[in-house]
Automatic annotation (TrEMBL):
<protein>
    <recommendedName>
        <fullName>non-specific serine/threonine protein kinase</fullName>
        <ecNumber>2.7.11.1</ecNumber>
    </recommendedName>
</protein>
<keyword id="KW-0418">Kinase</keyword>
<feature type="compositionally biased region" description="Low complexity">
    <location>
        <begin position="368"/>
        <end position="392"/>
    </location>
</feature>
<feature type="domain" description="Protein kinase">
    <location>
        <begin position="16"/>
        <end position="271"/>
    </location>
</feature>
<keyword id="KW-0723">Serine/threonine-protein kinase</keyword>
<dbReference type="GO" id="GO:0005524">
    <property type="term" value="F:ATP binding"/>
</dbReference>
<feature type="compositionally biased region" description="Low complexity">
    <location>
        <begin position="345"/>
        <end position="360"/>
    </location>
</feature>
<dbReference type="Pfam" id="PF00069">
    <property type="entry name" value="Pkinase"/>
</dbReference>
<dbReference type="InterPro" id="IPR008271">
    <property type="entry name" value="Ser/Thr_kinase_AS"/>
</dbReference>
<dbReference type="InterPro" id="IPR017441">
    <property type="entry name" value="Protein_kinase_ATP_BS"/>
</dbReference>
<feature type="region of interest" description="Disordered">
    <location>
        <begin position="338"/>
        <end position="393"/>
    </location>
</feature>
<keyword id="KW-0808">Transferase</keyword>
<keyword id="KW-0547">Nucleotide-binding</keyword>
<feature type="domain" description="Rhodanese">
    <location>
        <begin position="275"/>
        <end position="342"/>
    </location>
</feature>
<keyword id="KW-0067">ATP-binding</keyword>
<dbReference type="InterPro" id="IPR000719">
    <property type="entry name" value="Prot_kinase_dom"/>
</dbReference>
<dbReference type="GO" id="GO:0004674">
    <property type="term" value="F:protein serine/threonine kinase activity"/>
</dbReference>
């Protein structure tokens, strides 16, 4: 276990041995710790004292947080064990949940499939139902406070600015506490709250999960708050059957906003429409017993492990202000999103789509984002346009550290051992070592792959989907019957990334798309790996 910061005590209250820093949020830092008395791992949160606030006020706020969370006993709420006040500092001891936050998942994997988001939403509604029944408002529901546990649970954490119905409002009169990108309009405008505000924040959180950004994401906090006060949220384009629940939760007027029961009903309808398994009943215990693990939710209905095989649906998407393109016969997929310059803003990775040729660039499926930041291109050489060795009947020898992946649809390809494989409809993703490989396919290929990429680029760049976009190339390559590459770089969280999309026609009835992303600094070293993918690829016979 990594040692804590030098200025922090090693053991709290003679019991909790502090370890590595797990993360830092707007209310304080969280450490992994060991409860030496009960011999279990716990999470210990050190509460920051806001500027201008005296220690006693911070302590009172912390006690409210601890009392608010400790009142709740629910499988979708992180349990609070203890609260300590030592040497002018306040610490909260909580259940340790090996997990990633929803914010991290979106940042690493891109916007999520509506079926997965629906399941997450159902479990969060259970947590909010329990909290509101106990007179507790969370007041800071956002992706960073949603944990997707390794064991499949979905938990709401950090009641750091929570209020109970028998307490005074926690925020000072001149400061609105919370995250602007996920703050209900009535809180931002008037500083008032209520259970309805939590539901608005939940809607904004689910919106961010499927769209890759919050509904009022702007370039600054002030611009976000202004838009929140004066504009309607931009309609989601990837929500699919989740659109009705998002529209209902994001009503600006709290009196018109849907409640928990209506939200649950609409989410169940969405799960039924996607062919996914829904959580039965409204009873928290029944829901907990029938919970679908979060890791399983990456398995979409098109996967033969799910119950909705054949029910995948691709949706129309809006590219730019008025560009609507058909998905029919097209191939599109993505694994990234937008840069975030605001610490409270949803951080999502950039996106690019790889598609198979069509006269009008197809839109992403429901699980894909529409945005893909890019930065200036480096001088690194592009991917080799040489004909695939496998296409010429000379498949390379399987090298050490690689394995052959045989897809149920009939194609096979070499992939690095140990990379995580997920299947999202027709898309196969392989992730590892900070890199991403995606492979998609269609049975109805169209002509002119170069024109496809140009159409896609023009629509997305004009719509602002690729900030600082700088193109390496869009060009035809010699690969199977017909192919084209779209290559560019972008920046995410201060790190340059490099992408190559290849659309490939292998026959009159089959086409594939390949997406490859690495850090720009590693592009040269990884080009041989990408070439091995191309050389080893064998399409369906």
């Amino acid at each position: 276990m990594t040692e804590p910061m030098p200025d922090a005590p090693t053991i709290l209250a003679g019991r909790y041995r502090l370890g590595e820093l797990l993360g830092r949020g707007g209310m304080g830092a969280v450490h992994l710790a060991r409860d030496e008395t009960l011999q279990r791992d716990v999470a210990v949160k050190e509460i920051d004292q806001p500027p201008g606030e005296d220690g006693s006020a911070a302590a009172r706020r912390t006690l409210r947080e601890a009392r608010a969370a400790a009142r709740l006993s629910h499988p979708n709420v992180v349990q609070v064990y203890d609260v300590l006040q030592l040497d002018g500092r306040t610490w909260i001891v909580m259940e340790y949940v090996p997990s990633r936050s929803l914010r991290q998942v979106i940042a690493e994997e891109g916007p999520l499939d509506p079926a997965r988001v629906a399941r997450i939403g159902m479990e969060l509604l259970g947590a909010l139902r329990a909290a509101h029944r106990g007179g507790v408002e969370h007041r800071d529901v956002k992706p960073a406070n949603v944990l997707l546990a390794d064991d499949g649970r979905v938990l709401l954490t950090d009641f750091g600015i929570a209020a109970m119905d028998d307490d005074s409002v926690i925020s000072r009169s001149d400061v609105v506490v919370g995250s602007p990108h996920f703050m209900a309009p009535e809180r931002a405008r008037l500083g008032v709250s209520g259970p309805e505000a939590d539901l608005w924040s939940l809607g904004a959180t689910l919106y961010a999960a499927v769209e890759g950004r919050s509904p009022y994401e702007r370039g600054s906090t002030m611009a976000t708050l202004t838009a929140l006060a004066t504009e309607e949220p931009e309609p989601p384009v990837h929500a699919g059957p989740l659109r009705p629940v998002l529209d209902g939760l994001l009503q600006k007027d709290p009196e018109r906003r849907i409640g928990i029961e209506d939200a649950e009903r609409l989410i169940r309808q969405a799960l039924d429409e996607t062919g996914a398994i829904s959580v039965p009943g409204n009873d928290e215990e029944e829901a907990a017993a029938s919970r679908i693990p979060a890791q399983r939710t990456e398995v979409l209905p098109g996967d033969d492990r799910g119950e909705g095989a054949g029910k995948n649906r691709r949706r129309l998407a809006v590219l730019g202000a008025a560009v609507v393109v058909l998905l029919t016969g097209g191939l599109a997929w993505a694994v990234a999103g937008r840069d975030s310059g605001d610490s409270d803003q949803q951080a999502t990775p950039p996106a690019a789509t790889a598609q198979v040729t069509s006269p009008a660039a197809p839109s992403p499926p429901a699980s894909s984002p529409t945005s893909a930041p890019a930065t200036s291109a480096s001088a690194a050489p592009s991917v080799s346009p040489s004909v695939s060795a496998s296409a010429a009947g000379e498949r390379p020898v399987l090298p050490a550290g690689w394995e052959e992946y045989k897809d149920k649809s009939g194609y096979s390809v070499y992939v690095p051992k140990g990379w995580k494989h997920t299947q999202e409809g027709t898309l196969d993703y392989f992730r590892g070592d900070g890199k991403v490989l995606g492979i998609d396919q269609t049975d109805t290929p169209r002509s002119n792959p170069v024109a496809d990429w140009r159409n896609q680029r023009d629509a997305r760049v004009s719509a602002g989907d690729f900030p600082k976009y700088d193109e390496v190339k869009i060009a035809s390559v010699k690969y199977f019957q017909k192919a084209a590459d779209w290559e560019f770089t972008f920046t995410r969280n201060g790190t340059r990334q490099h992408v190559n999309n290849r659309g490939v026609v292998v026959s009159s009835k089959k086409a594939y798309g390949f997406y490859w992303q690495t850090k720009d600094s590693e592009w040269d070293d990884s080009r041989a790996d990408l070439q091995l993918v191309f050389d080893s690829f064998v399409p369906k016979k």
